[in-house]
Amino acid sequence: MKLFILNHFLCAALLTVHAECVSPLETALSSCLSKAGVRNILDGDKTWAQETLPFQLRLKPDPAVVSFPNTRDQIAAALRCAVENNAKVSCLGGDHSFGAFGFGKPGNLVINLGAFTRIVSFQEGEKGLFTFEGGIRVGPAAKWLWDNHQRHFPHVRAGHVGLTGSACGGGFGSTTRFLGTTLDTIEAVEYMAYNGTIIKATQYTNSDLLWATKGAGPSMGVILTMTIRTWKPKYQRAVNFTLDVGDVDLETGTKALLAIQDFALKDAPEEWALRWKLTSPPYQGTGYFYEDPAKFDQIMQPLMQKLPGGSKLKKDEYDFFTLDSYVAPGLDQPNGGDSPGRAFYVQSLTLTAAQPFTQDLATTLYKYTTYAFKRDDMKKSGYLDLWGGFSQKIKDTEQAAAYGNNLWLIRWQADAVKDWPADGVDYLKKQMLPFEKALRDADSSLRGYINYPDTQLTFAEWRGRLYGANFERLQEIKRKVDPDGLFTSNDQSIPV
Ligand SMILES: Cc1cc2nc3c(=O)[nH]c(=O)nc-3n(C[C@H](O)[C@H](O)[C@H](O)COP(=O)(O)OP(=O)(O)OC[C@H]3O[C@@H](n4cnc5c(N)ncnc54)[C@H](O)[C@@H]3O)c2cc1C
Ligand SMILES: *[C@@H]1O[C@H](CO)[C@@H](O)[C@H](O)[C@H]1NC(C)=O
Ligand SMILES: *[C@@H]1O[C@H](CO)[C@@H](O)[C@H](O)[C@H]1NC(C)=O
What we know:
Layout: H1 24-35, E1 40-41, H2 48-51, E2 65-67, H3 72-84, E3 89-92, E4 109-112, E5 119-123, E6 129-133, H4 138-149, H5 163-169, H6 176-179, E7 186-192, E8 198-201, H7 207-216, E9 222-228, E10 237-246, H8 250-266, E11 272-277, E12 283-289, H9 296-306, E13 312-319, H10 320-327, E14 344-352, H11 359-368, E15 378-386, E16 406-416, H12 424-441, H13 459-467, H14 471-481
Parallel strand pairs: 2-4, 3-4
Antiparallel strand pairs: 1-2, 5-6, 6-9, 7-8, 7-9, 10-12, 10-13, 11-12, 11-15, 14-16, 15-16
Helix pairs in contact: 7-14, 8-11, 11-12
The chain binds flavin-adenine dinucleotide and 2-acetamido-2-deoxy-beta-D-glucopyranose (2 copies).
The site of flavin-adenine dinucleotide (FAD) has 35 residues, from strand 3, helix 5 and strand 9.
């Protein structure tokens, strides 16, 4: 696994079979950190396996050193040590990256932000500006905000995910259709740059850096604090529902999807959310409604009339935060609960309202993914999250991530039943190719989702799918803020 030449190791073959190999770079980095008083560990430490365990178990991180700074000065010292030793830096937030990007490429100095989890401030007012440190998880932040101010921000669907990491790549949740993703709510960020200087970015100062944060924050520096807008629910209670079209054939199922899309574009209020399954048949999904719960049945009528007879609709109603903790398990638990890792491979694409599903596109997607999936060593999983609403008010150029006018977030994935199968990635990748071709044939550009990174994409592919025409501006900002590419440390970091 190590990429270094064997005789450069201090370790060795001469020692016991289990001796861990530590390269001169690793030793130098570690002693630089120790001299500066920054706790750090090397491979061989008894906590190493635990501290380098990603949520994504398909990948095995291989950093040089993992450091645990406790203060801003210690972060600055860690950055100096990395620069002196020519190592790249990767920040570890909530460790929930689907590509294990919190550890990044082999040989990185990892800065574990576990000591930076404080709530910094809340400012009363329409925007309800909420500031927290860069290592906090979604759960503790959302719960504190609710307990103290009865407010909410759109967030991912697991309390243990890092808030800063998920915000930089999106943060799509059940309120995204009307409130945007977490990314859309970012008002300010405070970075420590490569040279230890603290840079604040808002719409008034360093607005380019704020723009870049919304899609590529991890490539710019260490995010010390982030400020987001929050929202006060209008209704004390909210609805969750299950919509079930049943075990119908492909044609009926895809027509149902088009009926849903039509409803979303014409009739449904933005407060209506849907996560439709891509593992059909059966064709079904779950949804949420954040307008007046008393209006729900009436709102659903135009859709129910268009769906096949026999389609079933069930609903429940809960207090806002109770429901929010069902949406994002762990939200109300200490530290956002626990979410054990898995070995899986994910691919994601988005469709805009300008190029929505057609019957042909939907048929191709279902046919070659869920219908074609025949494995018992992997379990399929996939969703069509209804976006639209808020995103229809933003343009691609308003933030680094090309998310303007998004209508659907498509995710296709399989999880290993036990060990990740050697042909698993190829198998799943081939399943998406017909849909990608159908999109290209329909003159749609391929668009992706940063928080569901496809680790197999080439540079040309991911820069186009994730950033589109924004990439050049993003790279210019990168060159100013991180000129030597200290934070170009994972496979989808912005290069200098
Ligand atoms: C169980 C689960 C559920 C999820 N649900 C959703 C969902 O509903 N919607 C959605 O959009 N996404 C979802 N995700 C994806 C998640 O949003 C991303 O994986 C996100 O990047 C995780 O952030 P993290 O801080 O936990 O991970 P990490 O691996 O620690 O970090 C992710 C990236 O952010 C960088 N980073 C983190 N903190 C900082 C910082 N302070 N400064 C600079 N860089 C930083 C890291 O270097 C890395 O590049 C889910 C993931 C899991 C595992
Ligand atoms: C609403 O959510 C709760 C908690 O997850 C669940 O038990 C219930 O079945 C859901 N209701 C519907 C109609 O899906
Ligand atoms: C550190 O880098 C930033 C960003 O490039 C720059 O603005 C700042 O002047 C630098 N600080 C020092 C002390 O060199």
